[in-house]
Write a structure and sequence with these properties.
Length: 597
């Protein structure tokens, strides 16, 4: 661990000493619950991955089905998952809440879906059909003809086949072109201009521009669930979910749990194997205790500090890495009119240079201790640039790009103070600082240490912890806050970050960036179908247009998580996705429960 300013080093010494005491003294039994409080976790956070950009998909559907041993697989049982909260709303088109989106993926179908891969090979850049049986682009890339499966149907009270009018309805409802409010992230599908329905089994999508990421955008569970056109009349989408997916909505106990049950008429029948999926709300202190007791089958993230003890004390559990590969950063809030110190790019550059990323990675990811028990961490965690680390062919390691992006993404307090002086802020200033604790204790720890580093350049971060449901999701996450905020994004491709973080009106443009040169460059990137050329442009925009204004100050968060699976949960080897969720669509239906394990 590198040597930093004394009070920063003291923070880490105190934190690590506290962690070590908990690990050494109370790691067995109930002590695992205590350890969960000092590491990393999230509930169902459905976020990112590393992939080169795909070309337009072929007409034929790629192989997309995991292959468990049919002789061993068994039907039945309840798969129990730990979560931190129930959905704030059940309407997936009216929120960006990851909890709602995760629940929706269990119930709804999508036009396309991810293709499961092994951990080493994840993510697979290609998409497969879900409701789409086959598809074909016209030579100009502006029309997509989709043939729908004939065996997909909605559960009660709709009880009919899915058809092209449902696709038309869902796209219009998501975009708001039907006169409704539209989805808060409607810009994700703004490349779709028209939807024609030549017959019940055919949907023809007209695009307003060539868009290389079209199939992924329609596969993303954060986007376009295909809902029945009777939504709002036959049932209230805020009170229940009705879809054509692998499971059917069963019961919601607000703040306690939600349960879905097997859809016997799913179009990939006779799957799913599992009869019920139950998401149970547990405090982080309870999750490991219940997992170790066998009452919970899956905890989506385990604190890095709890992993060594869990391996020792609960060897029958499966502890596996998970590629989260998200992006944690400091964003710019109001006032954004040039009057606030944080609205000066030199101040944001100084903030970046005040962060000791090597020390943060060691402390937050528990690198030394995990590698001492044989787990690989170092090769899986790097430095974020102005866009996140880990995306093959797209990410730039700032440590190897000193002349360009590395100018401001380095640890150099002396140069940071010079930038503060040049910006007229040599005496420092105070600024409101927002974050949510919903993303886990390592996230919260990172959020806590950032203000300590900022003190070295005279900036006083005045902490405000935003309630996730009432403040963070409806306001801070939409860029409606004063001062600065520590925030999280996750997408499977850096082009998706560019679309969402730098386009005016985009739902995740937290800093409210308005720069036409960036907009034009992003549109060009997203219309470039050739993967190598597109990746070159993604690297170029980081060096040419993004690093100097530094609208977002990169931290080190959200690259690698650990998860636990009960031994009774049986999975194919290939079940990993791109880190953004959707396992209920492309993975879980092929899981099964061995009651004798």
């Amino acid at each position: 661990m590198s040597e930093g300013p004394e009070h920063v080093s003291s923070f880490w010494r105190t934190t690590i000493s506290r962690r070590a005491a908990l690990r050494g003294g109370v790691i067995g039994g109930a002590g695992l619950a205590a350890a969960a409080l000092i590491g990393c976790g999230d509930d169902d956070e459905e976020e990112p991955a590393a992939t080169a950009a795909p070309t337009q998909a072929p007409a034929a559907t790629p192989e997309a089905t995991p292959t468990p041993d049919p002789e061993a697989a068994k039907f039945g049982g309840t798969y129990r998952r730990a979560t931190n909260g129930t959905p704030e709303t059940l309407d997936p088109h009216r929120t960006q809440s990851h909890t709602t989106k995760g629940a929706s993926a269990q119930i709804h179908s999508f036009l396309f879906k991810q293709i499961a891969a092994t951990f080493e090979n994840a993510p697979n850049a290609q998409m497969a059909g879900d409701l789409a049986e086959s598809w074909e682009f016209t030579p100009d890339g502006l029309t997509l003809n989709i043939q729908l499966r004939g065996d997909a149907k909605y559960t009660a009270p709709i009880s009919r086949a899915v058809d092209s009018e449902d696709v038309q309805f869902s796209i219009a409802r998501f975009l708001g072109t039907d006169g409704s409010e539209g989805a808060p992230n409607a810009v994700q599908l703004d490349f779709i201009d028209t939807v024609a329905t030549p017959d019940a089994g055919t949907a023809t999508l007209g695009f307003n521009r060539v868009f290389a990421r079209a199939l992924w955008r329609m596969a993303d569970v954060f986007n376009m669930a295909i809902m029945p056109r009777e939504t709002g009349s036959a049932y209230d989408p805020t009170q229940t979910m009705v879809g054509s997916g692998a499971w059917m909505w069963d019961e919601l106990k607000d703040g306690v749990s939600w349960t879905v049950q097997r859809n016997p008429d799913w179009h990939n029948g006779p799957l799913p194997y599992i009869e019920k999926v139950q998401d149970v709300v547990l405090e982080r202190a309870q999750q490991l205790t219940q997992f170790q007791a066998g009452n919970i089958d899956h905890i989506n993230t385990i604190a890095p500090d709890a992993v060594p003890g869990l391996l020792s004390n609960f060897p029958e559990g499966r502890i596996e890495p998970r590629k989260s590969l998200g992006f944690g950063y400091i964003s710019r809030g109001e006032p954004r009119d040039g009057s606030a110190p944080w609205d000066d790019p030199r101040v944001r550059q100084a903030m970046s240079m005040a962060l000791d990323r090597d020390t943060m990675i060691e402390g937050l990811y528990n690198v030394q201790n995990l590698e001492s028990v044989g787990l690989d961490v170092s090769s899986r965690v790097g430095w974020h640039n102005i866009l996140p680390a880990g995306y093959a062919g797209q990410s730039i390691d700032p440590r190897e790009d000193a002349a360009a992006t590395g100018r401001y993404i380095q640890y150099n307090v002396a140069e940071a103070n010079k930038l503060m002086q040049a910006a007229g802020q040599g005496d420092g200033f105070s600024v409101p600082y927002h974050y949510t604790t919903r993303y886990g204790t390592a996230w919260s720890l990172e959020a806590e240490i950032i203000p300590t580093y900022m003190q070295e350049i005279g900036i006083d971060f005045q902490i405000t912890i935003d309630d996730f449901a009432s403040v963070y999701t409806p306001m801070t996450f939409r860029g409606e806050f004063e001062g600065v905020a520590f925030q999280l994004q996750a997408f499977p491709d850096l082009g998706d970050y560019l679309s969402e973080m730098y386009r005016p009106g985009a739902g995740r443009n937290h800093s409210k960036v308005e720069d036409q040169a960036i907009v034009d460059a992003v549109l060009d990137i997203n219309s470039t179908v050739d993967a190598e050329e597109r990746n070159d442009k993604i690297q170029g925009i980081q060096r040419d247009l993004l690093i100097e204004p530094m609208w977002y100050v990169p931290s080190v968060a959200w690259q690698l998580n650990w998860q636990g699976l009960n031994k009774r949960i049986q999975t194919p080897e290939a079940w990993h996705g791109n880190g953004r969720g959707g396992e209920a669509v492309f993975a879980w239906p092929w899981w099964w429960i061995d009651q004798d394990a």
